[in-house]
């Protein structure tokens, strides 16, 4: 072949090769994010590490098929990262997983229909073996049940329900009469026809974003139900422990499972008053309620020390002077008459148990921040908001000395710990990473990646981390 033709042939081949390569280069290039990418996001919520620290159950949140809401299901993954995550429940509205103390069962909350012909749903508590199988309903409360809390001995689960006396009376009457489902349905329809739809507003704050109208006639009260042996088919009879016009928040059990501690604010319209939190205790079998202490301020989370003699909590004490911002601090307090709360972070300019303001937290499933005690009771771990970041910190109980547990330009969105505080499960997000799940050993700082739910999608997006600018004001 003449040299001129040879050069033309070589040039043509090179051009053809480049043209073939262009689509491949373009497909490999990252693109800007679009509004429709939001439908592909996967969120990781409410990570719960098993008592032995070997597994993590979490809530996986996705946009539903109609793209008008969210589906939630429980997934499970080994805490050492040895296997990929796998589905544990089918969903589509499962949340709030809670390990039994021996790690053999999980309690969780599932939304179920109240009538097969209607879309109305209530939350009920279910139990499932950690080896798998079908979940079984533990409650069938008329207004639903939520916030399950296992007793340390594993025999009882306390929960919250807003069922009032009228709801409970109708519920018990139906059970006592043994009506057929058809008769119950007819009776319910007759009652609905005579029930007024007029809503009387008597409080300044009467509805909540995402929560709908407030119903003062149905405050959350504490109930308890015995946990039956495996193989039960019908929900056991629960016991109502608290009542009245004020609601309660379940906090924790005593180490011997004899008492339930809870917080309550006995103020009809607390939004007009300075925050105040009272801690109470009630016997697990029911009976007289006694006040443990009163804190002049609001409490975000509270945890009992391993010896059962102290509590650690995050909150804000009411200042005596006018102010424009409440900075949450970390407190320790003895469970003894006349004890005073001791502020561990009075000289630490950061927000304890604070998160970042963001719309890309898990929209369902929960993002808990909690106070974690070390096994010896000498240190506390808590999330701290500082300079646009949220990381975990160690706090010495005696001195208040602060040392980092996690570091980086990130937000620790939610986390949980084993009973001895030796291992944690935590969800971490950054400006360009959404909801990665890790396990962490605080003593060594060893962090193991477990789940990267958006890695495939985000690897193809051109996401730019923000630039931090600091200036004197």
Beta strand %: 35-45%
Main sheet overview: 5 strands, antiparallel
> Whole-Å distance between the termini?
76 Å
Report Rg: 27 Å
Shape: globular
Total strands: the figure is: 31
Give start-end ranges of low-pLDDT stretches: 1-27
Number of helices: 4
> Based on helices, strands and strand pairing, what is the structural class?
mainly beta
Task: Calculate the mean pLDDT score and round it.
Answer: 88
Could you estimate the helical fraction of the residues in percent? Answer: 10-25%
Give the key terms.
mainly beta; five-stranded antiparallel beta sheet; disordered N terminus
Summarize the structure.
With 473 residues, this protein is mainly beta. The protein has helices spanning 3-28, 165-177, 181-193, 455-458, and strands spanning 42-49, 55-63, 70-78, 86-87, 94-99, 105-113, 121-129, 136-137, 146-150, 156-161, 207-208, 212-213, 221-226, 239-240, 249-253, 259-264, 277-283, 290-295, 297-304, 310-317, 329-334, 342-343, 351-352, 372-373, 379-386, 389-396, 402-404, 411-417, 424-430, 433-441, 446-451. Helix content is 12%, strand content 37%.
Can you offer a commentary on this structure?
By secondary structure, the chain is mainly beta. 12% of the residues lie in helices and 37% in strands. The strands form 8 sheets. Strands 23, 24, 25, 26 and 27 form a 5-stranded antiparallel β-sheet that branches. It has a 4-stranded antiparallel β-sheet with strand order 1-2-3-4, with no helix packed on it. It is globular. The N and C termini lie far apart (76 Å).
């Amino acid at each position: 072949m003449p040299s001129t033709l040879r050069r033309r042939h070589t040039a043509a081949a090179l051009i053809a090769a480049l043209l073939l390569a262009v689509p491949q280069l373009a497909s490999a290039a990252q693109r800007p994010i679009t509004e429709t990418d939001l439908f592909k996001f996967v969120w990781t919520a409410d990570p719960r590490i098993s008592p032995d620290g070997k597994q993590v159950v979490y809530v996986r949140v996705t946009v539903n098929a109609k793209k008008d809401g969210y589906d939630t299901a429980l997934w499970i993954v080994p805490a050492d990262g040895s296997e990929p995550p796998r589905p544990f429940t089918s969903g589509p509205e499962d949340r709030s997983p809670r390990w039994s103390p021996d790690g053999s069962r999980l309690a969780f909350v599932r939304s179920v229909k109240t009538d097969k012909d209607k879309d109305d749903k209530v939350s009920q508590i279910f139990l499932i073996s950690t080896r798998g199988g079908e979940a079984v309903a533990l409650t069938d409360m008329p207004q639903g049940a939520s916030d399950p809390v296992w007793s340390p001995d594993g025999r009882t689960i306390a929960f919250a329900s807003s069922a009032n006396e009228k709801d409970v009376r109708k519920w018990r009457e139906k059970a006592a009469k043994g009506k057929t489902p058809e008769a119950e349905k007819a009776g319910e329809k007759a009652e609905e026809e005579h029930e007024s739809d007029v809503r009387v507003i008597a409080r300044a704050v009467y509805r909540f974003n995402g929560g709908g109208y407030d119903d003062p006639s149905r405050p959350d009260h504490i109930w308890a139900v015995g946990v039956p042996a495996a193989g039960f088919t019908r929900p056991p009879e629960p016991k109502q422990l608290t009542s009245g016009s004020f609601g309660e928040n379940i906090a924790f059990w005593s180490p011997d499972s004899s008492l339930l501690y809870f917080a309550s604010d006995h103020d009809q319209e607390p939004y007009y008053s300075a925050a105040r939190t009272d801690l109470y205790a009630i016997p697990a079998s029911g009976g007289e309620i006694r006040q443990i202490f009163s804190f002049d301020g609001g409490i975000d989370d509270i945890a009992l020390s391993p010896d059962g003699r102290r509590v650690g909590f995050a909150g804000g004490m009411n200042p005596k002077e006018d102010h424009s911002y409440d900075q949450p601090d970390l407190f320790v307090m003895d469970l003894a008459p006349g004890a005073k709360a001791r502020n561990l972070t009075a000289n630490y300019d950061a927000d304890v148990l604070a998160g970042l303001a963001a719309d890309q937290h898990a929209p369902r499933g929960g993002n808990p921040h909690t106070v974690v005690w070390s096994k010896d009771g000498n240190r506390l771990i808590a999330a701290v908001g500082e300079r646009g970041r949220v990381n975990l910190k160690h706090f010495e109980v005696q001195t208040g000395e602060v040392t980092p547990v996690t570091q980086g330009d990130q937000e620790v969105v939610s986390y949980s710990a084993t009973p001895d505080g030796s291992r944690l499960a935590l969800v971490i997000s950054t400006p360009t990473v959404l909801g990665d799940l890790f396990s962490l050993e605080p003593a060594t700082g060893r962090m193991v990646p477990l789940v990267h739910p958006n890695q495939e999608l985000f690897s193809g997006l051109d996401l730019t981390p923000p630039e931090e600018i600091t200036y004197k004001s």
